[in-house]
Amino acid sequence: MLLTRRTLMQTALTLGAMHAFPGLTWAQARPLVFATFTGSWEEAHKAVLVPAFRKATGNADMVLDPMLSVDQIAKVNAAKNNPPIDVMLHDPGPALQAIAQDLVEPYPVEKSAHYKDLIPEAQVPMGPSPFFQVVGITYNPETVKTPPTSWADLWKPEFKGRVGITNLNSTLGTGFMVELAKMHGGSESNIDPAFKALEALRPSLAAVAANPGQLATLFQQGQIDISPGNFNAIQILKARGVPVEFVIPKEGAIAFKTTIHIVKNSPNKELAFKLIEAALSPEVQAQLMEEPFLIVPTNTKVAIKGELAKTLAKDHAEIAKKFVFQDWAKINEQRSAWIERFNREIKV
Amino acid sequence: MAATLRNVTTYDLKLAAPLAAGFVVFFVTPLVILLALSFQTDPQGGHFGLTQYVNFLGDSFSLGVLGSTLWLGVKVTALTLLLGYPVAWLHQRSPGWAKGVIMLLVLLPLLTSVVVRTFAWVVILGRQGIVNASLLGLGLIDTPLKLLYTEGGVVMALAQVQMPLMVLPLITALSRIDPNLADASSVLGAGHWRTFRKVILPLSLPGIIAGCLLTYAAAITAFITQSLIGGGQMLFMPMYIYQQASTLQNWPFAAAISVIFLVAVLVVVSIFNVLGRLSRGYTNA
């Protein structure tokens, strides 16, 4: 083949045009893209949510593209007019950022069959919550003989050098700090007491993990015996035979609503709505509540059973009582300052 | 066509065009965008200025992070050189079959992902890890040492993970040295140590410099190993950039940190290059 300057230019221009106007090559028939979270969430959604969606839509095409909340926001932000994702899943902090940056559609509440059945905390007009994440105390039952009952137990002298926490990059780490502040007379807007409490915890700290996933590794390696931990993350460890237990402290469990959103300018809005409907439906939520997923349902029509009823709450009234939801709008205002301060002050 | 003789000793630059184009599209353009982004005064955009740079350079904490990252690289490079040189030397002095075995051992780590290699170090350095278990078993310590989540642990792990980058250039450099030179040196009355210091070491300097350069660059940017072994409170530049860009969505500051990091690394690299040039002079002397 002869490569003249002309053909080269033509090729380059065509490629350039295809890049500038992706519509040329990207026909409307893109499958629905759902950015779920990585790890156990992806597995759960692949096993339960995707089949339910296929059934509801007569086998519509969809793809799971698992990634962190912050990465979802970055990707959609980079291509607002032609977003590569149709449905986003968010922790409370990033959810508010996505809404503030005008990246999501309001949920068509009036069309929804399940929205009104959700417990009040889960009814978010900009994107309802298909499940909750719960943070309590996780501990190694082989070394911690009396189960802890309060967050304050982390400061007990017998846990000197055995406590693990995460830094504030994660929702878990930030939520834990807010809880600490509240225990010592602070709040979402007054974090000072939490830093003082953390200072007192310093001799006890064996590790400050870079993310909640690392806490799991640290338990496995016997590096830590007690830490704040995510209920669902612990289930995976337990299933693998790691000695680890979860308790809700008497102050209540820190609960995060994970919300699901239709991305603005998505070419698949109708399918996106159907996927979210499936995620809110009692059938899917009941199935996700079973072993091995143990995901906390938000639909009041789902009766809480099994392991969840045993460790967390036996019904939705108890959820309302035992779960502490934090004010993430307030948290977001100052989170970067907290992270800065944590960077500077917490050296183990 | 003009009837001039074709010049066969120079190459047509157009041959490099595809690579150059790829380089411009995928490297230079993002770099320019990064640079532009770093001059934004706030994440929402709008105003341009030097605010982000002033924030970083006027802040002792941020400068401390930069300093500790560059210093970490120095420590890792020194350790890698110390451990890697004997391996390369052994490779050079071994019979053919042993050469193959050593080469395989050097290359083997490159065939597994860096995450896997790093996780192995989590297992080795942990409280119930191999190191602590053996020390406890030998009765040398009473309570497990804290190795994981310490800077020493990070240096150890990085040195092992980046080892092939040091050993391979060293092997190349050493294999280029004529073995007769060492014999000549000893015939002339030099002992082993003197031969090494006066003949082998200077001749292998180009390999040392290349290896140090590669190891250094890889060590200071090793996000995965740094965060898995160092944990959440030991802050190095890659994690600092990630935190600002990802968790805080503060892209302008993240961009400014990246640019500063890039410049700092370039300075270190040029120092290495100057050393390289000096070493060539030394070798020829």
CATH superfamily of the largest domain in chain A: Periplasmic binding protein-like II
**CATH hierarchy, class of the largest domain in chain A:** Alpha Beta
Order of helices and strands of chain B: HHHHHHHHHHHHH
Report the strand count of chain B: 0
Describe the 3D structure.
The complex is a heterodimer of chains A (348) and B (285). Chain A is an alpha/beta fold. Chain A folds into 2 domains: 29-131 and 256-322, 3-Layer(aba) Sandwich (D-Maltodextrin-Binding Protein, domain 2), CATH 3.40.190.10; 134-255 and 328-345, Periplasmic binding protein-like II (D-Maltodextrin-Binding Protein, domain 2, 3-Layer(aba) Sandwich), CATH 3.40.190.10. Chain A contains 13 helices and 11 strands. In chain A, strands 1, 2, 3, 4, 7, 8, 9, 10 and 11 form a 9-stranded mixed sheet that branches. A two-stranded parallel sheet of chain A has the order 5-6. In chain A, α2 packs across α9, α4 packs across α13 and α5 packs across α6 (192-201). Chain A is globular and about 75 Å long. Chain A starts with a helix and ends with a helix. Residues 22-27 of chain A have low confidence and may be disordered. With 285 residues, chain B is mainly alpha-helical. Chain B has a single domain (60-284), classed as MetI-like (MetI-like fold), CATH 1.10.3720.10. Helices cover 75% and strands 0% of the residues of chain B. In chain B, α8 runs antiparallel to α10 (192-220) and α10 (192-220) packs antiparallel against α13. Chain B is globular. Chain B starts with 16 loop residues before the first helix and ends with a helix. The interface between A and B is medium-sized, with 31 and 27 residues.
